Amino acid sequence: xxxxxxxxxxxxxxxxxxxxxxxxxxxxxxxxxxxxxxxxxxxxxxxxxxxxxxxxxxxxxxxxxxxxxxxxxxxxxxxxxxxxxxxxxxxxxxxxxxxxxxxxxxxxxxxxxxxxxxxxxxxxxxxxxxxxxxxxxxxxxxxxxxxxxxxxxxxxxxxxxxxxxxxxxxxxxxxxxxxxxxxxxxxxxxxxxxxxxxxxxxxxxxxxxxxxxxxxxxxxxxxxxxxxxxxxxxxxxxxxxxxxxxxxxxxxxxxxxxxxxxxxxxxxxxxxxxxxxxxxxxxxxxxxxxxxxxxxxxxxxxxxxxxxxxxxxxxxxxxxxxxxxxxxxxxxxxxxxxxxxxxxxxxxxxxxxxxxxxxxxxxxxxxxxxxxxxxxxxxxxxxxxxxxxxxxxxxxxxxxxxxxxxxxxxxxxxxxxxxxxxxxxxxxxxxxxxxxxxxxxxxxxxxxxxxxxxxxxxxxxxxxxxxxxxxxxxxxxxxxxxxxxxxxxxxxxxxxxxxxxxxxxxxxxxxxxxxxxxxxxxxxxxxxxxxxxxxxxxxxxxxxxxxxxxxxxxxxxxxxxxxxxxxxxxxxxxxxxxxxxxxxxxxxxxxxxxxxxxxxxxxxxxxxxxxxxxxxxxxxxxxxxxxxxxxxxxxxxxxxxxxxxxxxxxxxxxxxxxxxxxxxxxxxx
Length: 669
Ligand code: IVH
Known about the structure:
The chain is of the alpha+beta class. It is 36% helix and 19% strand. A hairpin with a 7-residue loop joins β16 (371-375) and β17 (383-387).
C-alpha cells in the first residue's frame, strides 16, 4: 500500500467509525453489527500503526486510552467555573424571578430550563475544531488537565466538522457514570471481594482522575454538554442547538419557558420522571435565555445572577421494618437486607432495602418493628436512611446481628479493619461454592454461556459439581439427569465446556477467583508473569513488582497459592487442558530499548506530535510521567515549553534532552 492510499483509507475509516460511534452512543441506533464495527476499528488501528504520520486528530483509536499520568498539570480556566445559587421552594424561585425582572428593568425575558445533572463538571477547550484540553472544575479558577482521560469518553467529540466553526471555543458539561454502568461496576467489585462504591457521582469523580487512561476507558463514563462559551450567538438556546449540531451529547430534557409559571410546570413535570433517566439528577437549572441579558445581570462574588438551581427534595417514605435477612456472597461476605412492609415510593413498590453491614445497623439503632425512612438515591436498590423514633413501640426489639452463617451454620468472623462479617467455611458453604462456579463461567471469565445459575444449582444439588474443575469431568449421563435437558441441550452444554478450554490465560486467571484479582489485574499479572507457575512461585516482593499490584493484592495472591486445595484445583484444570500460559505481550511492543526509563514530554516538536512521542516511548518499553519529580529520568523538551518545568528539572538534576537526543537514544546510540 502506498502512503497516499493509506492516508486516504485512514481518513475514510476515521470518519466511518466516528459516524457509527455517534449513532450508537448518542442516538442508540446501529447500522452495522458489533463485529463489523470491530473490524473497521481493527483495520484503522493497524493502518495507524504502520503510518502514524496520518493519524487524524479525531481518531477514534484514542478512545481506548493508554497514557499514564502521575500528576495532573494545573490549568487556569479562561472563564472561571462558578457555582449556582440554590432554591428549595416555589417562593424562593419567585424571589429569583423578581430579582431578574428588576435587574432587566421591565424588559421582556425568557428562561431556559435544564435538569441539574449530578456528576463532575468539565471544561472542554476546542481550537480549530479539535479538542485540545479537558480540565476539571478544581477550585473554579484552576483545575486539573485530564485531557487523556476525557478523550476516552465516546460522546465527547474529538473534532468538530462543519461550516463556520469558531477558531476557539469552550464547552462546559457534566461527566457522569450512568446508573447501569455503576451498578455493573459494583457487582464486579463485590464479585472479587472489594467493597462497593458508595455512589455514582463520587465514582465518576474518582475515575476522571485515574492515572491510567486505559482504565478510564473501561469505566464507560458519559458526558452531557450544557454550556457553550466563546461563540457569537444571542441566546443560550442557540448554543444548545449548536452543541447538538456539533454532535455533543445534549440531554433531551431541556425546555424554553416564557415565564416563572412555566418553569414551575417544568419542575413538576420532571420531579418523578427524572428518576427514570440514565443518570442521577438532583434538581433543575434555570437560566435567562438571552446572552445579552445574562451579561446585564452579571455575577455576584460566587455565582451568576442570571441562573439558579432548584433542588428537589429527596423522596422519602416511612414503612415498617418487618425483619432482616442475610445474604452470603461468593467470597463469604455477609450482607444484611431490610425486609420492609411493601410501600409505594417514586413510581415503584419497595419491599427490601440495603443496609450494607453491622455498623450501619448499629448506627441507625434499628429495632425490628420500627418505622424506618426509605429513600431512593442513585442506586437502583433503595436505602434505609433513619428511624422514625416517634413511632417506636415498647414491643420492638433491637436487632442483634447474626453470629452464624444463615446458609451453613458456621460461626462468622470479622477481618480487622473491614466492616463485613464473613463465613469462613469456604469449601462447604453452598452460596460460596455456587458463587465460585457462577464467577468462573461468566462472560468475562470462561464465558460458558450454555451454563446458567439454575443449572449450576442443580449440578450442585445432585453432587456432580462442587468446584469449577468438576465441570470438566461432567459426562453426558450426568447432565441428562437435570430437569429440562435433552440430547441437544446436553450436547450444547458439553460443547460450551469443551470450547472454554481454549480461553486465554488471563481470563482463566480471573476465573479461578483470587480475592481482589479483577479482570484488569488478572490481565496485568498474566502478561507480566506469563504462566501460573511463575505466579505461584513468586515471592511477595516479586508480586509487588507487577503493574497494578499493591500490598493487598500481592498478599491475597500469595496466600491463594499457599493453600493445598487451590493447587489441587489448578492441577486438575491443567490436566483438563485449560490455558495456564501466555505469550501475549503488552500491546504492540517494538523494543525494550527504553525499559526502566521515564519521560515527561513538554513543548512542541519539529517532527512529531506529542501523542506520537508518547506512543513511541510506550512501544519501546519506556514510561510516561506527567509531572517533573525526583523520580523522573528524562525531560523531553521541545519549543515553547513552560519555564517552571524546565527550572524544576534543572533543580532536581533531571536530564533534559532534545528531539534529536531522543532519536539517538532510540537508535541505541
Ligand atoms: S450551568 C454558573 N447547567 O451544577 C454555573 N450546570 O452549581 C453554570 N450542573 O458546577 C452551570 N447540571 O457542574 C449548568 N444543566 C446544567 C447543570 C449544571 C449540572 C452543575 C455544574 C456546576 C454546578 C453549579
